[in-house]
Design goal:
225 residues; mainly alpha; Methane Monooxygenase Hydroxylase, Chain G, domain 1; 8 helices; 85% helix; globular
């Protein structure tokens, strides 16, 4: 399920520059599959949770229940991004060169956070999980920067209202994908310390971890500079 949702998101982003009808079909098929997986995995885990489970087993059940919801939503956002690609193609809408350059960086940041969260979950990689939250914060800040730049272009008459609607949809979907990646990585970190809630583990990561601050600075230079 994680593989399918991750690949669908990647394909949806590449469809913005290189649309292919077969790839579009595979993205929509992937969304159907993740819906199905969420249903059958979730039903199984709910039944499993009625049995006597150890603390570790109970934590694993809770973690996977949360994560399958996040991967299902990532596949939904992949379809939304695909629909934006189709709208751009069908209506002949294009962004300015500056807008293209800016949003390309957000595409790159989103793909990086998707791959990091996928590695964190599938390989239980705590180092990858620790990289997700500082990047998610950068993506949040980058989204606000993109909105400001877009408003400036609108005021200067360099961007159409129609292009603006597609632009807004794209950056909203990309930012929400990063939120789900943060949830996934947070679940991996939480499982590593059963005494911490997801909210507390992320808060501790931000406030107490020198590595977090270093990663934030690295991602800031990479995507915001």
């Amino acid at each position: 399920m994680a593989d399918i949702a991750t690949n669908a998101l990647r394909d949806s982003i590449t469809s913005l520059a290189d649309y292919d009808s077969q790839k579009a079909k595979s993205i929509r098929d992937a969304e159907d599959k993740t819906d199905h997986y969420e249903d059958i995995i979730g039903s199984y885990l709910v039944k499993l949770s009625t049995n006597k489970l150890s603390d570790r087993e109970s934590s694993e059940v809770s973690k996977i229940l949360k994560i399958i919801g996040d991967y299902e939503r990532i596949s939904d956002h992949a379809v939304n991004i695909l629909e934006s690609a189709e709208e751009l193609r069908d209506k002949g809408i294009s962004f300015t060169d500056d807008a293209k350059s800016e949003i390309d960086r957000m595409y790159d940041a989103t793909l990086e956070i998707v791959y990091l969260s996928h590695k964190a979950f599938t390989e239980h990689d705590l180092e990858a999980a620790g990289c997700v939250e500082p990047l998610e914060q950068i993506i949040d800040e980058f989204k606000e920067h993109l909105r400001s730049q877009h408003i400036m272009r609108l005021r200067q008459g360099n961007c159409s209202i129609e292009a603006g609607f597609v632009w807004s949809d794209l950056i909203t979907n990309l930012e929400r994908v990063s939120d789900h990646c943060s949830n996934i990585a947070g679940c991996v970190l939480e499982e590593n310390d059963l005494d911490l809630s997801l909210h507390k583990s992320i808060r501790a990561l931000k406030s107490d971890n020198e590595n977090y601050r270093k990663l934030y600075a690295t991602y800031s230079e990479k995507y915001l500079a």
